[in-house]
């Protein structure tokens, strides 16, 4: 009688592993063009999101770009980079992990967005999408998500809607993500950010403020100043 029980247990285990290994791969094009002042950033790239219903891992890379930005004399030149792990999320715990250029990784437990579902619709990659609006760390956003793929996720930190987010636009026209491809994959999702100590978002802002003040006060030569951004997708420094 023990042999059938053993075989049954193995089958259950295999079925369970198959269920949890199924995921979607979504590739997004993104742009960040913040030229309000010298403390914004400009960047163009791709994000590859591997997501299941319980966790996800994103990889990001820069793309070769020469862009002429209105109001800026010199064209913006950016060289391509390889994909590198950028964000890991645990949905059940409401956590996201990502690297920082400090000697810590970010363990963020306060990134959730309160969404308001809208009435606008559009079709993206053949999927019927519905709009939602929300505020995230200094910017207002409109996003389009599809319930045809019932994974409550999206690029970067954007998630917690009843379907996969396929497009994101900030109301100030700075941030934009748009899905270019979607496919089902059978890939292992894991947390690559486990080797360094963690800081939370408030601790990150404290460290970044010290870094920003130190760098902006640094003058390598008498008539030279160092400019570092005070914001990206998120606003790093609280307005006074």
Automatic annotation (TrEMBL):
Record-linked InterPro entries: GLPGLI
Entry protein name: GLPGLI family protein
Origin superkingdom: Bacteria
NCBIfam families, A to Z: GLPGLI (TIGR01200)
Any Pfam family the entry gives: PNGase_F-II_N
């Amino acid at each position: 009688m023990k042999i059938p029980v053993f075989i049954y247990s193995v089958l259950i285990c295999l079925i369970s592993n198959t269920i949890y290994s199924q995921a979607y791969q979504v590739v997004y094009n993104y742009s960040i063009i913040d030229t309000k002042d010298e403390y914004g950033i400009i960047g163009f790239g791709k994000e590859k999101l591997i997501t299941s219903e319980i966790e996800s891992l994103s990889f990001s890379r820069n793309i070769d770009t020469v862009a002429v930005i209105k109001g800026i004399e010199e064209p913006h030149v950016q060289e391509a980079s390889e994909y590198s792990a950028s964000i890991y999320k645990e949905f059940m715990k409401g956590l996201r992990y990502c690297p920082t250029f400090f000697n810590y990784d970010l363990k963020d437990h306060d990134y959730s967005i309160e969404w308001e579902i809208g009435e606008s619709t559009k079709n993206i990659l053949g999927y019927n999408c519905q709009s939602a609006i929300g505020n995230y760390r200094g910017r207002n956003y409109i996003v389009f998500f599809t319930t045809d793929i019932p994974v409550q996720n999206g690029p970067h930190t954007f998630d917690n809607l009843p379907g996969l987010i396929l497009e994101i636009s900030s109301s100030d026209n700075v941030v934009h993500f748009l899905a270019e491809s979607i496919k089902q994959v059978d890939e292992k999702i894991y947390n690559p950010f486990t080797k360094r100590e963690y800081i939370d978002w408030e601790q990150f802002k404290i460290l970044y403020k010290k870094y920003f003040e130190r760098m902006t006060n640094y003058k390598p030569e008498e008539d030279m100043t160092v400019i570092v951004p005070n914001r990206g997708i998120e606003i790093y420094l609280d307005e006074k």
